[in-house]
Amino acid sequence: MIALYGGSFDPVHIGHLRIAEDIREFFSLSKIIFIPAYHSPLKPECRASAEDRIEMLRLSLRYNSYFEIDDLEIKRKGKSYTIDTVKVYREKTGYYPSFIVGTDAFLTLKRWKDPEKLLESCSFIVVGRGKDTKDQVNRFLKENFQKTITESQIIEKEKTAVYFYDTRRIDISSTEIRQRVKENRSIKYLVLPEVEEYIFKKKLYRG
Ligand SMILES: Nc1ncnc2c1ncn2[C@@H]1O[C@H](COP(=O)(O)OP(=O)(O)OP(=O)(O)O)[C@@H](O)[C@H]1O
Ligand SMILES: O=C(O)c1ccc[n+]([C@@H]2O[C@H](COP(=O)([O-])O)[C@@H](O)[C@H]2O)c1
User: Fold this and answer.
1) Is the Cβ–Cβ distance between 32 and 20 less than 8 Å?
2) 3-class SS at 163?
3) Which residue ranges have their beta carbon within 6 Å of ligand 2?
4) Cα 80 to middle of ligand 2, angstroms
5) N or C: which end of the chain has fewer CB within 10 A?
6) Torsion angle of alpha carbons 193, 199, 203, 207, nearest 10°?
7) C-alpha–C-alpha distance, residues 163 and 132, integer Å
8) End-to-end CA distance of the chain
9) Alpha-carbon distances of 149 from 138, 146, 192, rounded to whole Å
10) Domains in the chain, please, with CATH?
11) CA distances for 120 relative to 20, 33, 58, 187, angstroms
12) Shortest CA distance to 192 belongs to which of 46, 64, 29, 27?
């Protein structure tokens, strides 16, 4: 069973990596496919190019055989709608894919493309972020989609559900990293050393 992890990854940081590893273990997943968005629909355009974001992902994922990158959204260009990506994986695998998402992004689901259809097309593994709570996610689901979180560690292939994963919270964001680089502050231990070196070598996020 694979899961898809979509994001801007501008840049990929330790929060993304550790959360993906925790989820892989907790749900016994065979693979996590990182899918960098060309343009995440509700955010401003990325600061780094698609090529640089992919390279930083490559540098970060290369020692984990459970992690892969798919550049289908980069190749598709334009706004990266999850419904389009999920459709490709549903056809490829023959089962309902799971999509990993932080609570900050999931709580905007009403503004995504075809949210009702999306909830019927894939499962979501929602990860607690910041001060967001499980109750808040359940309320959001109930009020907007007449759904609730499924309490299970086993992801089903034949039907969709919303799972909640919340063992640890990592207070790191790409915004903080970009801001720190701009202010000449340290990003050590927030990203992998290879990514830190790449950002400085390519002079990313400076101005
Ligand atoms: N520290 C974190 N803990 C849990 N989920 C995270 C964390 N960082 C990112 N995510 C989730 O990973 C996905 C991709 O995130 P993204 O690449 O946009 O990173 P970000 O740190 O949220 O970026 P930005 O600060 O630029 O908004 C989103 O679903 C987001 O909620
Ligand atoms: O499909 C949509 O309308 C949609 C709206 C907002 C976000 N997404 C996806 O959600 C993922 C996380 O987004 P972000 O902005 O946190 O990087 C990423 O894969 C986006 O393409 C998708």
Assistant:
1) yes
2) strand
3) 6-8, 37, 40-43, 80-83, 101, 105, 112-113
4) 7
5) C
6) -120
7) 15
8) 42
9) 6, 11, 33
10) 2-202 (3.40.50.620)
11) 23, 20, 31, 40
12) 64
Query: CB-side exposure of 176: number of CA atoms within 13 Å?
Result: 13
Give tens-digit pLDDT for 126-176: 999 999 999 999 999 999 999 999 999 999 999 999 999 998 999 999 999
- Verify whether ligand 1 is closer than 6 Å to residue 18 (CB atom): no
Closest protein CA for atom 15 of ligand 2: 40
pLDDT at 207 over 90: no
Please, what is the Cα angle at 120 between 115 and 126, to 5 degrees?
70
Q: Best substitution site from 40, 56, 60, 104 to test ligand 1's pocket, by max atoms within 8 Å of Cβ?
A: 104
Evaluate whether 132 touches 104 at the Cβ level (below 8 Å): yes
For residue 139, give every residue at least 6 positions away whose Cβ sits within 8 Å of its Cβ, in sequence order, or none.
Answer: none
Token reading at 183:
């202010």
E-strand stretches of 20-96: 31-36, 67-69
Strands (E), 46-150: 67-69, 98-102, 123-127
Torsions phi, psi for 46 (to 5 deg): -65, 155
What SS3 class is residue 98?
A: strand
AA identity, residue 71: D
